[in-house]
Amino acid sequence: MNSKIAYTKPSITELEIRYVTDAVTHGWGEQCYQYIERLEQQFASYIGTKYAVATSSCTGALHMGLAALGIGPGDEVILADTNWIASVAPVVYLGAKPVFVDILPDSWCLDPTAVERAITANTKAIIAVHLYGNLCEMARLQALATKHGLALIEDAAEALGSEYHGQKAGGIADFGVFSFHGTKTMTTGEGGIFITNNATLYEKVLTLSNHGRKRGQTKQFWPDELGYKYKMSNIQAALGCAQLERIDELVSAKRAVFARYREILAQCSELTLNPEPEGTINSAWMPTAVFSKESRITRDQLQLAFSAENIDARVFFWPLSSLAMFKNSTEVGQAKLSYDICQRAINLPSFVGIKDTEINRVCDVIFNLIAENKSDKTDVARGM
Ligand SMILES: *Cc1c(COP(=O)(O)O)cnc(C)c1O
After folding, report:
1. pLDDT tops 60 at residue 351
2. What residue spans in the chain does CATH classification 3.40.640.10 cover?
3. Residue limits of CATH 3.90.1150.10 in the chain
4. How far is the CA of 58 from the centre of ligand 1 (A)?
């Protein structure tokens, strides 16, 4: 059996080990927030926003951001049907109603025309999730948000380092959130961050993140409101500081892996990969191949072929409206492309440090599958 090819894994160097060792050795008492504050400042500066609050997850960051906007029962929040559940769960936690819309055929991100159709008097926010490193059409979404008085939120967990006309993903909308889960471009094990240029939102999230204790509250054990407990630890932040120092290297490495896939797979008219439109940079968190309908290659075939070669390739996200907990909340199957594309797509392994020989092995699986499907069709044509 060939050695296993993982789909993602973190890139850890001596720097990460040194910072974490320092945090666990000295980062207590007076020093217990040092790495957290450093990570918040440096991350905000990397994205180009004024404020950041480090959190225990992206889900928590999104939960607090939505709460800070005052979103609750009776409100509707629009997002793409194609998403990981983390992008919608906080909407439900707050008692608001998620409204799922279809995706665009090339970026696989939410379709602004579908968003506009979904806006009602109850709509409060749009969550733009930059899928697999690809960017949402932020200009059109911002125009809609402004026209209808809605908040625009970026879930940029998969697009750290992506750029939209000179602006870093996550720093464009009212607020942005990121994940530092072990599968993401930069990791703290588990963790996330909230970023914004809006001072009011920042203060609100900062308070919420610390059990409702306002900054400057001198009375001990005195929460000013009911909050949450979504803080990042100093030890995690130390790991984050080291990763952030290497962010340009990490993003370049991801882009190089993607460029290699693009080069090798360019000869396959049967599939398309992540787009990178004029004026944007795709940080290539997750190289993804979508096969044409004509190729007749299916998700199930792809999964079988990759697992037979000991390669961990992952399925494209299922439509959220197809999941049991959302069955009654939306008209299932309305988002036609969300339901269609996931049946003929696959995520390709892309960790920093993947070898060219491993990328070749991944591409060979695809070449063989295309060749087999072609000969099957010829057999059918011959009546065999
Ligand atoms: C990974 C991911 C999340 C969840 O992040 P956690 O840190 O696990 O909460 C949210 N949104 C998107 C788009 C993600 O890819």
Report:
1. yes
2. 14-245
3. 247-382
4. 5
